[in-house]
Structure formats: C-alpha cells, structure tokens
Design goal:
Elements (H helix, E strand, L loop, with lengths): L2 H12 L19 H6 L9 E3 L8 H6 L10 H10 L4 E2 L7 E3 L19 H15 L2 H5 L4 E4 L12 H7 L9 E4 L14 E2 L6 H6 L10 E6 L18 H9 L5 E4 L6 H6 L1 E7 L7 H8 L3 E5 L13 H4 L1 E2 L8 H6 L3 H11 L2 H6 L11 H10 L31
Parallel strand pairs: 1-2, 1-3, 3-4, 4-5, 5-6, 7-8, 7-9, 9-10, 10-11
Length: 413
C-alpha cells in the first residue's frame, strides 16, 4: 500500500496527533537523574586494565583462519581486544591494574553458514586460564575475581547453543568468579550470573550510517517487524523459538493492516525502521538480536517481548522509558496496548531515543568514540570498583575445582 494512503488511514483510524510523525526533527531529551549522566561518564582515570599477552592461537590466528569472525554479530570479542590495546585505561604494569583481561576469541569457530560452534570453547578457555595462572601471579590471588572475559555466545559461558545442553553444562567452572561480559541476558537463568555485564550484539555501524534518512522523515508505519516467526527446521510448532512470542505475533496480526510484518527482508529494511513508530523486538532468551540495536539507532520505539530479559547496560540505559515492555502472554493484546498509548508518551520516548548518547551506547564503532559500547563496558567495570577485599584468597586457599566439568572439557586444547 502506498505510504501516503497509510498515513491518512492511520490519522483517520486513530486520530493521532500529527506531531507524532515528527515533521520537525524530534527534540532530544536528556534523561533526568543518574541514568543520562552515567551514559556520558568517561571511564579514563577510573580504572586500569592489564591485557595479558597470549600466543596468537587464542586470538589473531583464529581470525586469520576465518575473517568472517570480524563481521559476525558476536564480533565484540575481537573489537574489544583491539580497543583495549590502544585504550588509555590500559596499563602495562599489572601491579597497577584493577582488572585483568584475557584476549581470547572463543566464538570465532564458524560453520560454513556462519553459525558459531562453541564445542572447543571450554577447552580453549581452560587452556588460556591455565597459561595465565602459571605465568603470572594474579589469577591465583583471586582465582579470577578481578578478571573479566568477553563471552558473546548464545548462552554466554555455558558454551552451547541448545538451551537444554547449556543449562546442563552451566557456566564453565573456571569462570565462576570472573566477571562475564556477554550478550545473553535472561534473568533467573543458570547461564547468567550476578554481576555480569550485558552488552548489545555487534551491528555494523558504517552500514547503518549509510542508510540514515533525514531526521524529519515522517513515521508512517505503525508497527514494523522483519524476521522469522517459526524456526521451521528445529521447531515447526513455534512454541520454543523465541518462546512462542514470534509465532503469536504472526498468528494474531498477520492480517492486521497496522502491522507491517513479514519474513521477507527488504533492501529498504533500515529505511523502513526509520519510517516506523514501533519496532517489534521479540527477543526470546537474549538481547543478542540486532533488532534492538537497530531500533535504538533508527529511533523506532522498541517493543520488547521477552519476559525477565536483562537488556544491555540496563544500569545506564533507561529501557523502561525508551521502550515498551509487553509480557509474552499479552502478545494477543499488542494492537490494543500500542494503539491506546497516549501521544505524549510516544513523543517522549521518541525524544529520548533521539538522544545521541543512546545510539552511541549500542554501537562498537571503528575507531571508538566516547560513550560507545566499548566505553559503557569500561564504565560497568569501573562501577564495580573498588574490589571487595574478600576476593583476595588467603595463602593456600583454593575455591575453584580444576577437574570439575564434563570429561571432554579436560582434554588439552
Ligand atoms: C597457580 O595455581 C595453580 C593451580 O594450583 C598452579 O598450577 C600454578 O603454578 C600457580 N601459579 C603460580 C604463578 O604460582
Ligand atoms: C572436583 O570435581 C571432581 C569432578 O566433579 C570431583 O570428583 C572432585 O572430588 C572435586 N574436587 C574437590 C576438591 O571438590
């Protein structure tokens, strides 16, 4: 349907105040209180990070073997390494460090179609930890409690892409005391431990930038979504994939003219998001869907359908104010929930989304920019300082069990 007819139809049906369509550039709004200020924090001077030097087989060689790892949505593990090497928070003196970082790319083992295979990750991780624990005194002081690891895989440091298996494995024993930086963010789940830092997935900033429309582009699509509703191969009934939320969206709204939803991925995908008011984010288990990043970057109000989700940098980004949270069981009421939202509320969310600090926090640009996702990770680490004295073990004290876990994990890497 022609967009201008859409626009008229929407106005007629819902009597929306035309200001919604943002004929002027939406004014941006700062978040009052701590949230906005936290996003703009400068981590430099607030923490020092020591980067271990590892043989290149743990990082660079893997990337050489498969260059797709750097464009993958889990590429944050590589970019974070590069970022830290030249960051002013890096210290070359480990005795000065608040945090220790082990540059390892556990997600850079891809199938021919580009899906990460995590089967070797536990052995690789174990091997790297053994190496740093033997060659430096810092790991044994705390058994990793002042170390952080970037583990952007589906179920983080559980290292399996099937939820059942991931739960059965649990978080790798040797990482139990470390701080995990991960995209997996399901609350009350064995693969998310307290104190983890949840990050957005990597989405290509230049590519998104190239599709940027003028900021006064009218928003004439009410609800937008592109993606699968069913995982036909693994879950034809749709009850498991995204915990049924996507299947419910399709069944309830496939014929609703307010819902521009389809499995077809158009070439105008990024532009369409800039023409939409609401963008559906049926996230299932994890915020690793790039949709959330795209919605924020393109100023489309994210409609988050994922019970108990822990969103990226949730202690700095006021998700409740920017987005709309819809309980999974309320998906059939989605149309009513969204059409009954007061115009002022929508406008306020759009103004908050127009705040450049929100967009920056979602991206891993090259080169890095202040306030971007790299800096938000550092801010998250800085907020955990100073370390509790109790993380330092008494002489001879051991907490981790080096021989725990499946026998296969104990084989050398
Ligand atoms: C740290 O502890 C491990 C395991 O107990 C041991 O093998 C290693 O030699 C220790 N490292 C140092 C630097 O003492
Ligand atoms: C470590 O884990 C292994 C395997 O689960 C177990 O057999 C062993 O008793 C544990 N060691 C300690 C000291 O708890």
């Amino acid at each position: 349907m022609n967009l201008s007819i859409w626009f008229l139809l929407l106005l007629l049906v819902f009597g929306f105040n035309d200001r919604i369509y943002a004929h002027q550039r939406p004014r941006t709004e700062r978040i009052s209180g701590s949230a906005g200020d936290v996003l703009e924090d400068d981590p430099v001077g607030r923490l020092k990070v020591y980067v271990y030097e590892l043989p290149s087989k743990y990082n660079k060689k893997l990337l050489q073997k498969d260059p797709r790892c750097i464009t993958h949505m889990f590429a944050a593990e590589i970019f974070k390494h590069r970022f830290l090497l030249s960051s002013p928070v890096r210290t070359l003196n480990p005795d000065d460090a608040d945090w220790f970082y082990t540059p390892i790319y556990p997600t850079c083992d891809l199938t021919p179609t580009g899906l990460p295979l995590p089967f070797k990750s536990p052995r690789m991780m174990r091997s790297a930890i053994q190496l740093i624990a033997t060659n430096w005194p810092y790991w044994n002081r705390t058994e990793g409690a002042d170390h952080f690891f970037v583990v952007p895989h589906d179920f983080g440091a559980c290292f399996h892409y099937q939820e059942e298996k991931a739960i059965e494995r649990g978080i790798l024993q040797l990482l139990q005391r470390a701080t995990l930086v991960q995209t997996f963010g399901q609350g009350n789940h064995v693969c998310l431990k307290e104190g983890s830092i949840i990050i957005p997935p990597y989405a290509p900033p230049q590519k998104m930038q190239a599709h940027q429309l003028p900021p006064d582009t009218p928003r004439s699509i009410f609800v937008y979504f592109r993606g699968l509703f069913y995982d036909v191969n693994n879950d034809p009934e749709g009850g498991y994939y995204a915990r049924g939320a996507r299947a419910a969206v399709w069944e309830n709204f496939k014929n609703n003219p307010l819902f521009d939803i389809s499995t077809e991925h158009p070439t105008t995908y990024y532009e369409d998001m800039q023409r939409a008011i609401f963008c559906l984010c049926p996230l299932g288990w994890a915020p690793w869907s790039p949709r959330l990043v795209e919605a924020v970057v393109f100023g489309c109000i994210p409609v988050i359908i994922a019970d108990d989700i822990v969103l990226p940098f949730a202690d700095a980004i006021p998700w409740e104010q920017i987005g709309v949270f819809v309980a999974e069981e309320d998906v059939p009421k989605l149309d009513k929930i969204l059409t009954s939202m007061p115009t002022e509320v929508i406008l306020r969310k759009q103004r908050l989304l127009a705040n450049p600090s929100m967009k920056r926090a979602m991206l891993f640009p090259q080169p890095a920019q202040s306030g971007d996702a790299f800096h938000q990770i550092l801010n998250g680490l800085a907020r955990k300082l100073p370390h509790d004295k109790r993380i330092f073990l008494k002489p001879g004290e051991k907490i981790l069990n080096w021989t725990a876990g499946p026998a296969g994990d104990l084989k050398p890497w």
